[in-house]
Amino acid sequence: MHLVPGIWIAAAGVVLGVAIGATGIGGVLLVPILTLALGIDVKRAIAAALLSYVPSCLVAVALYARRGSIPWREASLLCLAALPTAWLGARATNLAPAGVLEVAIGVLLLLGGVYALCPPRRVPLERVSLKPAMLLGLGGGTGFVSAMTGAGGAFVLLPLLLLLDVPVLAAIGLGQAIAIPIAGPASLVNLAAGLVDLWLAAVLGITLALGIAVGTPIAHALPQRLLRRLLGTVVVLAGIAMLLRTAVRLL
Predict the structure, then answer these.
(1) Half-sphere exposure of 240 (CA within 13 A, CB side)
(2) For residues 29 and 235, is the Cβ–Cβ distance under 8 A?
(3) Chain-centre distance of CA 173, in angstroms?
């Protein structure tokens, strides 16, 4: 990895880490940045992003757990369901054409960005208990989609939890927790397929962790509305850029 691209990758990792720690989403922009700005093949970008989530989300889970923001009953069921589906999602990534993956990521970005721009729901402050079947379904679906697209688990799971009236900080904490069992099996599949750039993943993992350490106190201290709007705008623009690039290639 050359010096100048490496500096840009490190800077992007720190900025996105702050976004992940502060709002729960941000990692979904990692693959578009690697592909659109640096020209990295989409499958290798997904593989590097997923492996980088292992150390960075361990830091996030530790920080959120220290503040009491992770309900462990819900986390255990979500993570259990995500393990097998993450493996399946990574296998699907290896088999799917690059164009299909880019379209899937672009659509996911648009949907998530529009959601982030919508006024946040008012959710109760007390803990909300979800049924085991609901948690297993959410975990399984999140594992497959996240492993296939390289999106952070929180990006897929967080909107669903908020729609189910889970408190914001607990929803973010659960999103950080589920990223670990998604990234682990998916990374094993990607390593076996020879898709992982270990240096790229290491740089991303370290810088994301640094950013998350900065962003987590922000999540617990500041209102989320402005952060959501800013991040939502960036996510929508990234989705449009991804879809336009794919369309140009097909024409």
Answers:
(1) 8
(2) yes
(3) 12
Tell me the two tokens of residue 219: 């999540």
pLDDT in tens, 182-236: 999 999 999 999 999 999 999 999 999 999 999 888 777 766 566 667 667 767 7
**Inter-residue contact 114 to 240 (CB < 8 Å):** no
Which DSSP state fits 33?
I
Give the SS3 label for residue 234.
Answer: helix
Contact status, residue 145 vs residue 89, Cβ threshold 8 Å = yes
Dihedral sign for Cα 76, 144, 202, 170, please. Answer: negative
Cβ–Cβ contacts within 10 Å for residue 125, how many? 7
Residues 143 and 83 sit within 8 Å (Cβ to Cβ): yes
- Contacts with 7 (C-beta within 8 Å, 6 or more apart), sequence order: none
Helix 3-23, helix 42-66: angle, nearest 10: 40
Q: How far is CA 21 from CA 32, 62, 97, in A?
A: 19, 12, 32
Beta-carbon contacts of 166 under 8 Å, excluding residues fewer than 6 positions away, are: 123, 128, 130, 174
DSSP state of 130: P
220 alpha carbon, distance to own chain's centre: 19
* Cβ-contact 146, 182 below 8 angstroms: yes
* Cβ proximity of 52 and 23 under 8 Å: no
* pTM > 0.85: yes or no: no
User: What's phi and psi for 201, nearest 5 deg?
Assistant: -65, -40
Structure tokens at 225: 């509305």
- In whole angstroms, how far apart are CA 124 and each of 111, 128, 129, 250? 25, 8, 12, 47
